[in-house]
Amino acid sequence: MSQPQQQPVLVAGGGIGGLAAALACARAGLPVQLFERSPAFAEVGAGIQLGPNVTRLLQAWGLTASLEAVAAYPDNLFIRTADTGAELGRLRLGAQARARYGAPYATIHRADLQALLLQAVQGEAGVVLGLDQAITGFEQDANSVSVHHADGRQTPGALLVGADGLWSRVRQQLLGDGAPRPTGHQAYRAMVPQANLPAALRCQDVVVWLGTGLHVVQYPVRGGDWLNLVALVEDRTQQQNPGDRSGWDHAALGADLQRLLHSSAPALQALVQAMGGWRLWHLQVRDTVSSASQMAQGRVALLGDAAHPMLPYLAQGAGMAIEDAQALGQALSSAGATPKALAQYSQARWQRNARVQKRALRNAWIFHASGPTRWGRDLAMRLLGESLLDMPWLYRGP
Ligand SMILES: Cc1cc2nc3c(=O)[nH]c(=O)nc-3n(C[C@H](O)[C@H](O)[C@H](O)COP(=O)(O)OP(=O)(O)OC[C@H]3O[C@@H](n4cnc5c(N)ncnc54)[C@H](O)[C@@H]3O)c2cc1C
Which ligand 1 atom sits closest to the C-alpha of 189? Predict the structure, then answer.
């Protein structure tokens, strides 16, 4: 007699979190059906940093070779003041991170990370990937869950994982806690081939430039062939009236940023001037996760930005989505596709996610400080150096 077919785990969203979740569920031996609303799996043209807590998981999923083919592995993270360029502190990455944490500190193009996860997912039997399939809602009872599609269809499953990002539909229905909150912080992002930069501006390290009300981060991507730059800027007027400047052309955004940095170190000004193809994001957040029930209820769980969006000031949003996925896979392996597994998952994850969210928020205050706070920060960095910049609680993993 043939076995009844096992119901799939349904995943809403095919970003980094959704693909990582699909991979972890498949590796736990469960069928998966993923629904992505876009017509293609596509990521924005920008970089992403991955701490050893994240690369360790990618290695455990057998993705070391595909990561090495596209990532860069900076030797150092330098902290500089934006106004003079003076070095405030240095964290050795490279061999030091590998020795300390058993995994490297990597920097990567988002599309490359998404592509390597996609390739791994496509290599798993039992995963069905659906594009152009927005989820509009769900229903759950004691025995199953089903998702609703825009054309009125429904797909039944054993569990639903809402990995549908900042504006999550699944979250809206599960928690009903409204829209994310504008922060008044904006991210200007650009990438260029290093070969197009003057030799003095090419760089294979992570460099963080701290200014008043802003900071700039640069790091290599695409095996070191490209340089990624992101400038994070507080704009209090935008907080009251966020507006939409996403349509601004690249040259206007570049000029805007140059104006903001007009009194900064010549090397930083030269770098911003040399970059092209600027894009702008208005950063939004939600309150910190405050209980396990905010990450899972019954047969529905949230993962990644849907569960815990954060300011990118600890460079760990995607990292936490990947950690979530690993924890989800582990819970499913031990308890099967059951509400018990989701309860285990949310219990394992909510406090760490909350800690990272809070730390990212605190970094906004520290990175952008002025006056006595800035003075104290700079002194502490100079005196304590690496012991202040290293974060074993984070990089060792959960
Ligand atoms: C400026 C900036 C810099 C950052 N730097 C870093 C960094 O260095 N390191 C790091 O770890 N993180 C970083 N992050 C955070 C990171 O980008 C996010 O945390 C991560 O991309 C979240 O992934 P996700 O899959 O949860 O959500 P998303 O990437 O938002 O993916 C959600 C997916 O769901 C789809 N979707 C939405 N609604 C539906 C629906 N109704 N039905 C079906 N599909 C749907 C979307 O199309 C999308 O593909 C940064 C963020 C910013 C803004």
Answer: 1
